[in-house]
Design goal:
The chain is α/β, with parallel strands linked by helices. The chain contains five helices and 14 strands.
């Protein structure tokens, strides 16, 4: 396991329903990250914005977005993740794709679909979480509205070290976004990275960004405001392990299973 995990968070102003234009921007941004970057995290629906026009924006698992993630991971020797609208066996998923440096893919289908935006009317609910490994760090990826449901992210027996939320979280609820990210870090004794978009989408919804990295004590160690920008930050394993050892609250956690 690497002592440090070097993370880059891309807080983009997503061009509405335009994968090619967004890929062009992301390619430019990829040139700005440090050479030692291990993990790049993109927002929710990073190629289209939070659109419910699934027949227009959905792509297959071998579509342009997934292929771009895979190619980027391999050519730059990094892990990269973000969510896309994927069509799979006549169903649509808000799927967080994880592309690994060796070309392998893992994915998580968003569990909690945002009913206030009618997401549950267009997408199929996911039924399990995943934990992927990069540079020896265990990482759990979740998507936006999942943030409001702490049981789903519970770090049973410290199975993961970093919790990720890729999001399109609207500006009017920015305080909830920041507060819940801190809460997830504290209760799960882990680092948390929350990656949000900025700008205004095709439905007129405004986003304030506020992408952050939170340490296990609930402190922001790196944060952005409301402009398109990148966080480049190294998180430290020894600090995480020392805190867990000195304050082992996880040993008193309740045991449960989600069915």
């Amino acid at each position: 396991m690497n002592e440090f995990l070097n993370i880059s968070l891309f807080q983009t102003d997503i061009i509405w329903q335009s994968p090619e234009a967004n890929i062009e921007i992301l390619n430019e941004w990829m040139e700005k990250i440090p050479d030692n970057t291990d993990l790049v995290i993109l927002p929710e629906m990073f190629l289209t914005g939070f659109s419910m026009d699934v027949k227009k924006i959905a792509q297959k698992s071998d579509g342009v977005g997934v292929l771009w993630l895979k190619r980027t991971a391999v050519t730059r020797n990094i892990t990269i993740t973000g969510s896309l609208t994927i069509s799979d066996e006549n169903r649509y998923f808000n799927r967080c794709i994880v592309a690994l440096p060796d070309g392998h893919l893992q994915w998580y289908n968003k569990r909690h679909l945002f009913r206030m935006g009618d997401e549950h009317q267009h997408f199929t609910q996911g039924d399990n979480t995943i934990i992927f490994n990069t540079k020896g760090w265990n990482v759990m990826p979740l998507v936006c509205y999942d943030l409001r449901f702490p049981v789903w992210s519970r770090n049973v027996n410290l199975k993961y070290d970093l919790l990720i939320y890729v999001a399109n979280w609207p500006q009017p609820r920015r305080e909830a976004f920041l507060t819940l990210l801190k809460a997830r870090a504290i209760e799960n004794q882990c680092y948390v990275a929350g990656v949000n978009r900025v700008g205004t989408d095709g439905n007129g919804v405004k986003y304030s960004g506020d992408s952050v990295i939170v340490d296990p004590k609930g402190r922001f160690i790196s944060e952005l405001s409301s402009n398109p920008d990148i966080i480049n930050c190294a998180i430290a394993l020894n600090q995480l392990q020392d805190f867990r050892k000195s304050f082992p609250a996880y040993l008193d956690a309740d045991s449960f299973e989600i069915k």
